Amino acid sequence: MKPKFKQSVSILLTTLLSVSLAACQSPNSAGTAEESAANLNDPAWKKAMTTPYEPYPETVVYTVGQTATSYTSLAGTVYEKDTATDNVWTRYFKKKLNVQNEVAFEANDGTDYVQKVSMAIAGGTIPDIMVVPDQATLQQLYENDLIEDLTDAYNNCASDRIKEIYDSYGGRVLESAKFDGKIMALPTTEISHGPGVLWLRKDWMDKLGLSEPKTMEDVEHILTQFIEKDPGGNGAGKTVGLVVDNENVAGISGGPYELNNIFALYGAYPKQWIKDDSGKAVYGSVQPEMKPALAKVAELYKRGLIDRQFAVRTSDDRKALLTSGKSGSFLDNWWGSWTVADTLKLNPDANWVSYVAPQSEDGSVTMFTGNPSSSYLVVRKGFKHPEAAVKMASLQFDYQRYLEKDPAVLKEFEDYSSNNIGGSPLAMNIDYYDAFYRNVGIFEEALKTGDSSELVSNLDQNAFRSYKKYLDSVKNGEKPDPIAWAGYTSSILTANLVKNSKVKEINPVFFGTTPSMALKWPTLTKMELEMYLKIITGEQTPDAFDSFVSSWAKTGGDTITQEVNEALASK
User: Fold this and answer.
1) What are the phi and psi torsion angles at 122 (to 5°)?
2) For this UniProt entry, which segments traverse the membrane (predicted)?
3) Pairing relation of β-strands 502-506 and 364-368?
4) Whole-number pLDDT of residue 22
5) Deepest in the core among 21, 70, 372, 407, taking most CB within 10 A?
C-alpha cells in the first residue's frame, strides 16, 4: 500500500472518529475491572496475567479484527479444513496460552482492512483486539478513553526479547505509543530499509572493463558507457538509462526506482518532515537544498543517463526494461534482487550486482529513515484480559521464532509458510531495527561450515536451507532458481554490503496528519509532483523551484507546517 494512500485513509479515519467515537464507549468497564481484580487473587490466574507464557486456567475468548487468509492453497493437505478460528496459529495460541479468537471482522490486508477498522470505529463496534493503521487513530482512541492502558501488561507480559526488539529502535517506536507516560498500544515495527542501493548489470561492466562505482562521477561514467557502448546488444541508441519512478522520483523510504541517494548528496530529503537548525520541523521538499539536487537530476536526464521516457512509464514498464535487458541500472534497496529475479529466466547469464552508491566525499551514504511504526495493536477499554494481546505478541514474535523446538510444531508453520499462508489473528509484526543484516555474519559462517546451530531463529533456519540449496546448485553447475538467487543476493550479499558500509541516518520527526491536510495536502502533493517532472524533463528551469516554494506556502504549506510543529509540541 502506497504511503500517500495511508495518509488519505488516516485523514478519513480522523474525520470519522470526530463524529462517532462516543458510540464506542463500553458500559462494562467497571464490571470487567472488578473481575480482573478478583482473578489476581487466584494464584493460577495471577501467574497467567503477569507472565509472558503461562497459560490461563480457563480459556480466554477475545474478539478480533484480523486480515483475511485464503486457505485454498491448502486443499489436499491435512490443513484443508483450516479456518480463521482454527488454523496453525490459533491452535498454537490455544495450546500455549489457552486463548481463542472470535472474528469480529475480517478483511484483505491493505485498503480493505483499513476500511473495516474505520467502519468498526464509526459503528461503535470495536473488537477486543485489533490493529489500527496510524498514530492519529491511536491518539483519538486514547483521548476518548476507548482503549486499555497496556503499561502493566507490557512490563509483566512482554518477553525480554520483545523489549530488546523495541529498544533496538532507540525509543522511537515504543514512545510513539505512549500518552501521558502510559503505553496505550503495542506498535508494529518497520525494520530499517537501509540506504538506497544501486543495482547494475555486472556482466555489462565486465564486458566494458568498468570498475565498481563509489562517487557520483563513477555512476555517471558507468551509465554513459552502458548507453554509448551497448554491452547488452540492444542496438545503437536503444539502451535505456537509469530507470526512475515517475510518481515518486524521491522521498519514500524503501521505495523502488527512487533517486534518494542523489538528493542526499545535496542534503535534500524530499517529502520528509525534518528539523532545521533551530529545531523547528520543516518540510524537506521546500528547502533550498532541493534546487541544486533537482538541477543535477535534470542534467542527467538531458544527457540521457536517466530513462528519457520515465515520465510515462508504468510499474510494469519499468520492471520489463530491466528484466528484458533494455536497461542495466536502477536504484532500489537491499531487496532489489527480487525486482529483477525474472531476468534469470530470460537470460541466465545476466548478473545483477548491488553497490552502496553514489557516496559522499567521505565515503558515506546518507539515508532518511522511514516511519518506525506504521500501525498499532490496541485493546478495547473494558476487555477483561488486556495482557492477552501482549502475551500473544510475545508468543508469536519471540517464542515461536526463537524458542520453539518441537519438530512437529515447526513443520506445521513451515508448511504454512511454504504455501504463503498467514492465519495469525495479530495483523502486525515485531522485529529488530537491523533485522535484515543482523545475523548475516552468522549466516555466512553457517553456509561455509554447514553448521547452522548458531542461527537461533526458526525463520533463519528456514532461510539457511534455502540459501544452501542455491549455493549447492551453483557449485554443481546447475541452473539456479531465480527466487533462490534473489533471496541469497538480497539477504546475504547485499545485506553484508550494507552492514559494512558507512551509513548516516536522518530521522524524520513527523509521520502523521494535521487538520488542514484533509483539504490541502492532495493539492500540495500534486503541485510537488508536477514541479519534479517539469524541472527534470526540462519543461521548466530549476529556477521554477523558487516559484513552487512560494505557491506551496500560500496554498496551505505554511499552515500545515505550523500544525505539524504544534502536534510535535503537544506530544
Assistant:
1) -65, -35
2) none
3) parallel
4) 45
5) 372
Closest C-alpha to 570, from 10, 562, 347: 562
User: Identity (one letter) of the amino acid at 166?
Assistant: Y
Q: Which domains does the chain have, with CATH numbers?
A: 3-192+375-418 (3.40.190.10), 197-368+508-570 (3.40.190.10), 440-502 (no CATH)
DSSP-derived secondary structure letter, 13: H
Query: Cβ-count burial of 526 within 10 angstroms (0-12 exposed, 13-18 middle, 19+ buried)?
Result: exposed
Rg (CA), the chain: 25
Q: How far apart are CA 474 and CA 347, in angstroms?
A: 16
The secondary structure of residue 246, as a DSSP letter, is S
Are 442 and 394 in contact by the 8 Å Cβ rule? The answer is no
Answer whether residue 25 shows pLDDT above 50.
Answer: no
Burial of 231 from C-beta contacts in 10 A (0-12 / 13-18 / 19+): buried
Confidence tier at 459 by pLDDT (50, 70, 90): confident
CB 280 within 8 A of CB 376: no
At 281 the three-state DSSP class reads strand
Whole-number Å distance between alpha carbons of 181 and 309: 52
Q: Can you list the alpha helix ranges (DSSP code H) found in 144-244?
A: 151-157, 160-167, 172-176, 202-208, 216-229
Evaluate if residue 30 carries a pLDDT over 60. Answer: no
Distance CA 555, CA 459 (A): 49
CA distance 385 to 407: 31
Burial of 449 (0-12, 13-18, 19+ CB in 10 A): exposed
C-alpha cell at 510: 513527523
Distance CA 101, CA 85 (A): 6
Beta strands in 181-280 (DSSP E): 182-183, 186-187, 197-201, 273-275
Q: Largest alpha-carbon pair distance within the chain?
A: 82
Determine the 3-state secondary structure of 67 from DSSP: strand
Could you tell me which residues are beta bridge partners of residue 283?
273
Task: Read off the amino acid at residue 164.
Answer: E
Half-sphere exposure of 446 (CA within 13 A, CB side): 21
Task: Tell me whether residue 351 is exposed, middle or buried, using C-beta atoms within 10 angstroms of its C-beta: 0 to 12, 13 to 18, 19 or more.
Answer: middle
In one-letter notation, the amino acid at residue 101 is N
On the CB side of 313, CA atoms within 13 Å amount to: 23
Alpha-carbon dihedral sign for residues 285, 289, 293, 294: positive
Rounded to 5°, the CA angle 201-256-504 comes to 90
368 three-class SS: strand
Taking residues 458-471, what's their average pLDDT?
Answer: 91
- Which of the four pLDDT bands, split at 50, 70 and 90, describes residue 33? low
- Can you read off the three cell numbers belonging to residue 228? 554509448
List the 197-201 sheet strands across, edge first.
329-332, 197-201, 352-355
The answer to whether the beta carbons of residues 259 and 249 sit under 8 Å apart is: yes
Instruction: Look at strands 60-67 and 99-107 and give their pairing.
Output: parallel
CB atoms within 10 A of CB 309: 11
How many other C-beta atoms are found inside a 10 Å radius of the C-beta of residue 299? 15
Closest among 367, 339, 330 to 489, alpha carbons compared: 339
Say how far apart CA 64 and CA 105 lie, in whole Å: 7
Report the SS3 class of residue 277.
coil
Q: How far is CA 222 from the centre of its chain?
A: 31
